[in-house]
Amino acid sequence: MATASVSGSREKELWRRLDEVNDPELDEPITEMGFVERAVVAGDGSVEIDFRLPTYWCSPNFAFLMLDGVRKALDQLSWAPAYRVKLHDHMFANEVNRGMEAGNTFGDIFAVLAEDQDLGGLRETFRMKAFKRRQEAVLRGLRQHGLTDREILGMDLAAYDVARFEPGEAAKQKPRYRAALLERFPDRRADDPVFVTWEGQRIPPGALGTHLAELRGVRINMEFNGALCRGLKQTRYKELEVVDGEPTLVDFILDRVPARTAPTA
């Protein structure tokens, strides 16, 4: 009984850690995107992960950033397990899997695959987009609650932390924006404004509408890429979607619905 309890606790911790790993381009958890096909804790405590991206030609840089995030998540598990991460159906899957089996780090493997790409610059670009998308959701939420632009832009961390939202995008992004803000500006004082530009500049109340229009463009681009990514993955693997217990029209068009078995006499 104790063993089953330990196993269940470890499984929950494993998925909780994986939930914290985001697709860097979309700022959405890789678990929600369906990239983690399998994650199990074996009887000896070791961990096995099967990872699959939506297309065969997904950028090796994106693959690296996500797999490196998975590695860091596994390194944080409380029982420090041995682990195996396997990439499936990707143009560099063989190189990645061979490298990992040989004990090479992700950095060593992708240093060759990424050639002279600036992964640090790529990370920074994605952090900026995530910062803006999260900020926009919270700003819109505060406006919907009836706060004036001056009240919103005058908020410090204390006021921000007590703000409450109904379940939805603003509530989801509130702690995530706080984390992005403090990652971007670790020396931020408690009485500094919470809402600033990526460069750290104050946003005048009269400019909030223009600022939100810029952020909206970032969000729409990310949402479009996310929808495209999910669609490519579903089409590639013919994943069946069910609405109210029935396949959707798209599933029939894409031939994802298995033929019915004739009843036996």
TrEMBL record:
Residues 12-79 form the MIP18 family-like domain. Transmembrane segments: none annotated. This is Metal-sulfur cluster biosynthetic enzyme. It comes from Mesorhizobium sangaii. The lineage of its organism: Bacteria, Pseudomonadati, Pseudomonadota, Alphaproteobacteria, Hyphomicrobiales.
